[in-house]
TrEMBL record:
Subcellular location: Golgi apparatus membrane
Topology of the protein relative to the lipid bilayer: Single-pass type II membrane protein
Enzyme class: transferase
Listed name of the protein: Hexosyltransferase
Pfam families, alphabetized: Galactosyl_T
Membrane-crossing segments per the record: 7-29
EC number from the UniProt entry: 2.4.1.-
InterPro entries linked: Glyco_trans_31
Annotated family: Belongs to the glycosyltransferase 31 family.
Keywords, sorted A to Z: Glycosyltransferase, Golgi apparatus, Membrane, Signal-anchor, Transferase, Transmembrane, Transmembrane helix
Name of the gene encoding the protein in the UniProt record: LOC102800712
PANTHER family (alphabetical): BETA-1,3-GALACTOSYLTRANSFERASE 6 (PTHR11214:SF3), BETA-1,3-N-ACETYLGLUCOSAMINYLTRANSFERASE (PTHR11214)
Length: 331
């Protein structure tokens, strides 16, 4: 008996020791394992990109943290084999805009075998009634990413950075991400055919602002002081209406964003991160900021992917009649 007990005991001890090591390892695994691409030491802020900007003044010594709680988390949208995730920036009050989107492109789950996930992203409303309503909207549609900070225009840059963090954490199998707003018309069929022939890595596209000016005029909403931005021009950036990114670009942006001061103009901030990463954003004529350049009354160019309408009612009117996307069909 005693002879048998010894080896059994030592086997038990060995097994429990191994288990403990495994459990400890599991517990200490970093929450975002991919985010170790950059450290402060391997980042070069001087002469970033072909425009030779010295961006040292934007360098942070202490890492940014974007660790906000997600009050509602639609991570199921990234399970399986989604090809594309569309993240639509919304605001708690824009219920009507979300309804219109859910009744149009929101219904589409796949196009030519490509699975598409779609979610809305927002911060918290400033009162409890609205929060209750928003949470029941989320329960009904399960398509709202609700971040634990008070929503507002000044939060746009932070909101985007949190979107990249969320994507990095939950959507590692999704090939592309599109970030857009709830007043933009997205023609999904055209977007998917565009992505089918797009590079699978290093890809960033949309409406490119080349030589975008830093506005000093105090009356302009997106003004910048000399201290905020010392150069007359910004690095090339994609206008915020809709930007298309391959997964690796999202992950790299998220990773570097932890070391860079947040610029108050959201689309410029992403352009700054492109410059630091050496990523060249590509212009596409299929994205348009000024509706009149792509549409004639209710008819828009047939190859368009994203059109900015500005006014929700106008977008709704267009969405009612699918024929508008094809000029030849509806003149
Ligand atoms: C940073 O990049 C610039 C050119 O883009 C180069 O001249 C400089 O040597 C680099 N600095 C370091 C520390 O790598
Ligand atoms: C870049 O700017 C910083 C100050 O923000 C300065 O200390 C540094 O010398 C500059 N580097 C180059 C290469 O001009
Ligand atoms: C627009 O019309 C062209 C030619 O008839 C067709 O190939 C294309 O699929 C149409 N686009 C949409 C979004 O319906």
């Amino acid at each position: 008996m005693a002879n048998l007990q010894k080896p059994i005991l030592s086997i038990l001890l060995l097994v429990s020791a191994t288990l403990t090591v495994v459990i400890i390892t599991l517990l200490t695994v970093d929450e975002t394992p991919v985010s170790r691409l950059y450290t402060l030491d391997n980042l070069n802020f001087t002469h970033s990109g072909e425009h030779g900007l010295n961006l040292t003044f934007l360098k942070l010594e202490n890492k940014n943290k974007f660790s906000f709680r997600y009050i509602e988390n639609p991570s199921h949208k990234c399970h399986g084999t989604a090809f594309l995730l569309i993240m639509t920036v919304s605001a708690p009050a824009n219920v009507q805009a979300r309804t219109v989107i859910r009744e149009s492109r929101g219904k589409i789950k796949r196009i030519s075998e490509r699975e598409i996930g779609q979610i809305f992203v927002m911060g918290m409303p400033d009162n409890n009634n609205d929060l209750g309503r928003l949470r029941s909207e989320s329960t009904s549609y399960k398509d709202i990413l609700l971040i634990d900070f008070t929503d507002g225009y000044r939060m746009l840059t932070l909101k985007s950075m949190i979107m990249f963090e969320w994507f990095t954490e939950y959507c590692q199998n999704v090939q592309y991400m599109v970030k857009t707003d709830d007043d933009i018309l997205i023609i999904l069929q055209n977007l998917i055919s565009f992505l089918k022939s797009a590079p699978s890595t290093g890809f960033a596209s949309g409406f490119l602002r080349q030589n975008g000016k830093a506005w000093r005029n105090t009356k302009v909403k997106n003004r910048a002081s000399i201290t905020q931005w010392p150069y007359p021009m910004y690095p090339p950036y994609l206008a915020g209406l809709a930007i298309v990114l391959s997964r690796d670009v999202v992950i790299r942006i998220h990773d570097i964003s932890m070391y860079v001061k947040m610029y108050h103009i959201e689309d410029v901030h992403i352009g700054i991160l492109f410059a630091l990463l050496g990523i060249t954003p590509q212009h596409s004529t299929r994205f348009e900021i000024e509706e009149i350049k792509a549409c004639d009354k209710l008819c828009c160019r047939g190859d368009m992917i994203a059109i900015h309408f500005g006014r929700a009612e106008k977008l709704q009117q267009h969405l009612k009649d699918i024929k508008f996307v094809n000029k030849t069909n509806c003149v």
